[in-house]
Design a protein that fits this description.
About 55% of the residues lie in helices and about 10% in strands. By secondary structure, the protein is α+β, with helices and mostly antiparallel strands. The chain has 2 domains: about 70 residues; about 270 residues, no CATH class. The strands form 4 sheets. It has a 5-stranded mixed β-sheet with strand order 5-6-8-7-10. The protein has a two-stranded antiparallel sheet with strand order 1-2. A two-stranded antiparallel ribbon has the order 3-4. Strand 3 and strand 4 form a beta hairpin.
Length: about 450
């Protein structure tokens, strides 16, 4: 059976001051049949049924609230409407009436906030519409073309927006506006640290993984899963601020559903990540996919260190007016030597501790999934920054965002199940492991990745 051919990146860049064309390679549209995660069609059918079951669990949560609230309302009415007589049992009647009113108010409050949190982004921790800087499609046509070409390989629709975040993160999200007619926007967020040091091939691997979430429909119901968990988390946090929260049945009801939903949604989240890894590795080869995954882990840790060590003067301004944190990071970036990947894989196998509540599989599990795919000759070593218009100004703008935040605000904690289908894994944030990598001399300076100012001119 013939496969549809799709050219990747044959574009003339002379108008952008780069006479070199993108690597002239051909890649077949990805078709994953017998992947390491099992039969694709069979798994997709069961996963879709499982997703619907999770959505029904959300409906059960709100449905039980309605049933209990109606019963409490009927009980309160009966207690209040009955003749009042002064006798010993009257105090018990008053206590029952007060308790039913208090619990009823709590239920009504949680029900209303839950509905609002489910269909709007009001209670989202970091709404994707507010993340990063929106890239203009015309000015950054090269990057949008690359994303479209990679999307064709994994049968994914092109995102409506590409945003650049100041943090080392890459993810996709589906934003919905509910009304008479539901509107949705597909958002792709790329981290400026990734753009500063990665080449086009490495970014393509990440793009294939992220766009594969659109292919599998992971963002369609995933937004409801996240918002439901986030609403419950906020409800538990608010109720714990009272001294007698443990006496409220509403608290234990919300806590039970929170833990249950985390437990039940974990397997489908991990399967979605492994399936996206399969599509990415099938498109660009298992070796490149594994190398990119490990480099991405190292990138996030090194950028955190670069923020801390960025040279500043006594007034908190950059010591060098022409340097931002991303240029500094690019100049300090070190990639793995030949022995580095094997060493890191062994160390992660020892350090990682999988949990049934994790939304991502372990790095080792992802590597074992991708290593079955043969390498593909699709290497494009051009810096990603050559695809970005006015990258220097963009880096300076995001630099201000990084240093306008302090403490924990720079790297906010994420919920176990995020609406973002992120490329990064929750890994042991072990600074000692990064120290071991440096001591073992398996990192080297990546001299072929120029600084931002050198790349963009």
């Amino acid at each position: 059976m013939s496969q549809e051919e799709s050219e990747i990146g044959v574009r003339d860049r002379e108008a952008r001051g780069d006479p070199r064309p993108v690597s002239i390679k051909k890649a077949s549209r990805v078709h994953v049949s017998a992947t390491p995660v099992g039969n694709r069609a069979s798994h997709s059918r069961w996963i879709n049924l499982y997703r619907l079951a999770l959505f029904e669990l959300i409906l059960i949560y709100f449905g039980l609230f309605v049933v209990v609230f109606s019963e409490l309302l009927r009980l309160s009415w009966n207690l209040a409407a009955s003749p009042w007589e002064i006798r010993p049992a009257m105090m018990l009647r008053i206590a029952m009436l007060a308790a039913s009113i208090i619990v009823g108010v709590q239920i009504a409050r949680r029900f209303w906030r839950g509905i609002v949190g489910l269909v709007t982004n009001r209670y989202d921790r970091a709404p994707e519409a507010q993340v990063g800087v929106l890239l203009d499609r015309e000015e950054n046509a090269a990057l949008y073309e690359l994303v479209a070409e990679v999307g064709k390989l994994v049968d994914s629709p092109s995102p409506d927006e590409i945003r650049i975040s100041h943090e080392p993160e890459c993810f996709v999200a589906e934003l919905r506006s509910f009304g008479v007619r539901t509107r949705r926007r597909l958002i792709l967020v790329l981290g400026m640290p990734h753009l500063a040091v990665l080449n086009v091939s490495e970014l393509s691997v990440i793009l294939a993984h992220e766009l594969a979430h659109f292919t599998g429909g992971d963002t369609t119901l995933g937004v409801f899963d996240y918002r439901f968990i986030e609403t419950l988390r906020r409800a538990l946090f608010e109720m714990r601020r009272t001294t007698v929260y443990w006496a409220s049945p509403v608290y234990w009801y919300c806590r039970a559903f929170h833990r249950l939903f985390l437990f039940l949604s974990g397997p489908v989240q991990r399967y979605q990540e492994l399936r996206a890894d399969c599509l990415s590795a099938a498109a660009f080869g298992g070796k490149l996919a594994i190398d990119t995954l490990l480099n991405e882990w190292l990138l996030a840790r090194q950028f955190e260190a670069a923020v801390v060590t960025f040279p500043m003067d006594a007034h908190g301004a950059p010591a060098d007016d022409d340097q931002d944190v991303y240029t500094w990071f690019a100049s300090q970036w070190r990639q793995f030597s030949l022995a580095g990947h094997d060493y890191l894989r062994r160390r992660l196998a020892e350090e990682e501790r999988p949990s049934i509540l994790d939304s991502h599989p372990t790095i080792q599990a992802r590597i074992e999934t991708m290593q079955y795919y043969p390498p593909r000759d699709l290497e494009d070593t051009r810096p990603v920054l050559q695809l970005i218009s006015q990258a220097t100004a963009l880096a300076s703008q995001l630099h201000q965002v990084v240093f306008s935040r302090t403490g924990d605000d720079i790297w906010p904690d994420s919920v176990a199940n995020s609406p973002r289908n992120s490329y990064s894994c929750p890994l042991p944030s072990d600074g000692r492991l990064l120290d071991r990598l440096a001591i073992a001399n398996i990192l080297k300076f990546r001299t072929q990745s120029p600084a931002i100012t050198e790349t963009c001119g």
